[in-house]
Design a protein that fits this description.
This protein is α+β, with helices and mostly antiparallel strands. It contains five helices and seven strands, in the order βαααβββαβαββ. α1 crosses α3. The longest helix is centred in the C-terminal third of the chain and has 16 residues, at 109-124. It is globular.
């Protein structure tokens, strides 16, 4: 994909349909390859997953009332993704797997994905949202702080054996 960074990119966000597992897999693999320190899993692990696992993951999430898989599209190309999942009580939104293609970063796509998930959670009656950010990911930190997420003080290693830390941020909806 070649999108010009000097022009305004029109994009839309939408929920992934239960039959779009290949799209979700493609975005997820692109995301983990592009930003390996932003995700708890690694590319080798993700790319080794069987098609059935991807199919089941997307079908389950797309059909569950407390789950949302979002894709951002610009010029009909998929350029971003994220998931949202409400806790069992429906009170807290867990945000994750957020990624935007490097060619269209800083054009509002991440904010559009996040706002779509937050709006969905508010409509569902959630009162707060939480997410984890890798320490040193200043762009993500700025985006989340601009949408009123604040650090909670919780931190842990990105994954077992990693020297990188992730910290939790939360927002009141």
């Amino acid at each position: 994909m070649r999108l010009c960074k000097t022009r305004v990119v029109k994009f839309k966000t939408r929920a992934i349909a239960d039959n779009e597992w290949r799209l979700w897999r493609s975005l997820r693999l692109r995301a983990v390859e592009d930003s390996p320190h932003a995700f708890r899993s690694v590319l080798a692990q993700e790319s080794a997953e069987a098609d059935e696992r991807w199919r089941e993951l997307v079908t389950t999430a797309a059909n569950h009332p407390h789950s949302l898989l979002l894709v951002a599209e610009a010029d009909s190309d998929p350029v971003g993704m994220m998931f949202g999942r409400l806790d069992e009580a429906g009170d807290v939104l867990d945000v994750g797997a957020m990624w935007v293609d490097p060619e269209v970063r800083r054009m509002g796509i991440g904010r559009g994905l996040l706002n779509a998930a937050l709006d969905w959670a508010r409509t569902a009656g959630a009162g707060s949202a939480e997410l984890w950010v890798t320490a040193g990911n200043d762009a993500a930190d700025r985006l989340f702080a601009a949408t009123e997420f604040v650090p909670t003080g919780d931190e842990e290693p990105l994954r077992q054996g990693s020297e990188l830390l992730v910290y939790r941020m939360a927002a009141t909806l």
